[in-house]
Amino acid sequence: MDANPSVEPSAEPGIATATRFPTIIPSPTTERLQLEIVQSQVWTDYQGNTRANILFRNPYDFPVSLGMNPRATLVNSAGEFMRDGLPYFLDGISGGGGFILPWETIAANACFTCEEALLTEEWAEVQFVTRIEDATGKWNYFTDVEASGVSVSFDGKSPTFDVSGTVKNNSGSALQRISVRIIVFDQDGNLVGAAEASAWDVGAGTTVSFSGYGIGQTPDGPVEYEVTALGVNY
């Protein structure tokens, strides 16, 4: 994979393939991946819905956005198409379309059956396709914000979990929105959930509470999580 920041991203889509294990294996291709896939999580919840969480990393020294809708595709053991899903990016300011700061890792989630019939055969792998573009100047964002006191609470078999905490606006401007992004790992470092929660209309120097929910699987033991925050004025 060529992640040299001085090279402009290709206009061709990048494709990666996931098995039932957390490891992502790039499909054979002569084109480099545009976004690095750090880790993924694919599971079937207690209601029979097939879900995925994916961690995408921007390897460039400029912000990027998804130029076209990304895709997550389930295929069977014969390599045949089964179902498409539209990943929703938890960057917190793009409305799920995908915006990633330089060298930042952002989670995206997808559900292949939440609005369609449940699967009737086993899937074999998941393919992720992304197309990115330089997003310099696209959003009026602020990095001088910080989250603290973050709490993550799973609830048995539910595919959702609760998050809460406080966030402070350290910038000199009032911000319309501050997004808190939370990536959750089990004690072995495996991805088990991803969440985003926002605080709105936060004055300069002000600390406010936030709460929200994420999508994931209840782990067997303790969890660790990575927390980042980003402010925006639209």
- Write the H/E string, N to C: EEEEEEEEEEEEEEEEEEE
Helix coverage percent of residues?
under 10%
Shape: globular
Q: Major β-sheet, in short?
A: 7 strands, antiparallel
| Overall radius of gyration | 18 Å
CATH class of the largest domain: Mainly Beta
Unreliable stretches: 1-17, 19-31
- Number of helical stretches of at least 4 residues: 0
Give the neighbour order of strands across the main sheet.
13-19-16-17-18-15-14
Overall average residue pLDDT: 87
**What is the CATH-assigned architecture of the largest domain?**
Sandwich
* Beta-strand residue fraction: over 45%
Structural class by helix and strand composition: mainly beta
* Beta-strand segment tally: 19
Q: According to CATH, what is the topology of the largest domain?
A: Immunoglobulin-like
Number of domains: 2
Distance between the termini: 34 Å
List keywords for this structure.
234 residues; mainly beta; Immunoglobulin-like; 2 domains; 7-stranded antiparallel sheet; 5-stranded antiparallel sheet; 19 strands; 0% helix; globular; disordered N terminus
Description:
0% of the residues lie in helices and 53% in strands. With 234 residues, the chain is mainly beta. It has two domains: 14-134, Sandwich (Immunoglobulin-like), CATH 2.60.40; 140-233, Sandwich (Immunoglobulin-like), CATH 2.60.40. It has a seven-stranded antiparallel beta sheet with strand order 13-19-16-17-18-15-14, with no helix packed on it.
